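$ ./design --mode recover --in tokens.txt
reading tokens...
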């Protein structure tokens, strides 16, 4: 198999027209659920908090438009979790006054963490990259030895974090000192590509731009020389990863008083190349696609996330969240059809696995919910890169089998805790 190379093109970030209607999910990032005190008919200003954090580890949620609450309804997240959604309609220009602070670095770590959560700053990116983000709101229980700021996007077509480094270089440099102060990290490095390294300065560590080197587990392995397989192991060893977009949003929130109301998204449609858009959170998928001249047809597929790890969505009204890094559109004739076929034992998945797992055996057990057997074949070590499914000659949905097994294990553990 040829190497999948990360896209290193320069692609300016474009603004899209502010929508008249947004749907704000109260679970913007997996496991981070807010509560709303708003009711139908309430007036909302742009930048106003609409989702209150129930604890000291969840970022607040803010409205990107001014208007009126039209509905509070049950909804599904892009990952399929049940949550509540607040629908706001309007689009007027008035906004909450901002309260920036040019001298924010002189504040204490506790005060900075509190202000960041109040401004809605969490770990932005696919699945929130929350597994590998240090806490921003509570005292860090275990010292962080190495904090990695990733300026490389996790999947091949994505270009958003690289472009943020190009367009917000000063904020990123300030952010290095900010995350050191907030988290108490002993060492902060910026993972970047060789082409982008000169912009980052003395903190830069160049990583070969080959997928899946930018996934959090791989970054930690490449930079520290010590493999980690999941978030708990990363935390136990004192490692953490944040995206460049997250760090820049931290600086903007504290310095300029701007809460997180937008998400930079790489949009790939079949008729044209990728584009970087700054999208108001809560904008529906079809609205983002319409902004780039794409209309959906019967049989088309829309993926939130990249082509290797993203999730196909059944509803074009699914809103953009803080976890949305990419939107990929595929015409129906180009969609790969997985087959209900047994493994043919070719070994292609084993050869390509970066963690050297015996994927063929593990996924057979995942498929039939034989979870203990799957764990004995290193299920916990899988970093969910999707390369196994990409090369599977039998066209088996291997990544989906793996995610199913991991979700089942998590569900069983939660039931045991409740019991």
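writing sequence...
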């Amino acid at each position: 198999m040829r190497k999948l190379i990360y896209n290193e093109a320069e692609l300016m970030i474009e603004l899209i027209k502010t929508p008249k209607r947004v749907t704000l999910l109260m679970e913007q990032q997996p496991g981070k659920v807010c509560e709303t005190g708003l009711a139908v008919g309430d007036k909302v200003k742009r930048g106003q908090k609409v989702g209150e954090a129930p604890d000291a580890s969840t970022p607040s949620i803010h409205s990107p438009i001014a208007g009126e609450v039209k509905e509070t309804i049950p909804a599904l997240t892009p990952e399929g979790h049940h949550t509540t959604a607040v629908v706001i309609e309007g689009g007027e220009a008035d906004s909450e006054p901002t309260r920036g602070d040019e001298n924010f670095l002189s504040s204490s770590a506790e005060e900075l963490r509190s202000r960041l959560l109040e401004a809605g700053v969490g770990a932005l990116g696919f699945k929130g990259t929350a597994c590998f983000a240090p806490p921003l709101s509570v005292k860090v229980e275990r010292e962080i030895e190495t904090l990695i700021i990733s300026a490389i996007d996790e999947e091949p077509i994505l270009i958003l974090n690289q472009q943020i480094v190009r367009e917000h270089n000063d904020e990123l440099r300030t952010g290095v000192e900010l995350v050191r102060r907030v988290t108490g990290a002993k060492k902060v490095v910026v993972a970047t590509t060789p082409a982008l390294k000169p912009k980052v300065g003395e903190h830069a560590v160049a990583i070969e731009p080959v997928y899946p080197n930018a996934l959090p587990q791989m970054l930690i392995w490449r930079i520290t020389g010590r493999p980690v397989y999941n978030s708990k192991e990363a935390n136990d060893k004192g490692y953490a990863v944040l995206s460049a977009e997250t760090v820049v949003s931290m600086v903007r929130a504290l310095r300029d008083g701007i809460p997180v109301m937008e998400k930079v998204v790489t949009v790939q449609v079949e008729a044209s190349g990728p584009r970087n858009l700054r999208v108001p959170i809560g904008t529906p998928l079809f609205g983002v696609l319409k902004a780039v001249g794409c209309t959906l047809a019967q049989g088309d597929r829309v993926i939130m996330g990249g082509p290797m790890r993203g999730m196909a969505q059944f509803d074009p009204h699914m809103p953009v969240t803080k976890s949305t890094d990419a939107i990929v559109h595929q015409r129906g004739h180009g969609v790969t059809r997985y087959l209900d076929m047994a493994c043919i034992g070719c070994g292609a998945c084993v050869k390509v696995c970066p963690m050297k797992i015996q994927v063929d055996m593990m996924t057979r057990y995942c498929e039939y919910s034989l979870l203990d057997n799957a764990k004995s074949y290193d299920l916990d070590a899988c970093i969910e890169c999707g390369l196994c499914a990409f090369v599977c000659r039998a066209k088996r949905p291997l990544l989906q089998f793996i995610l199913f097994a991991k979700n089942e294990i998590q569900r069983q553990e939660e039931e045991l805790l409740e019991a």
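exit 0
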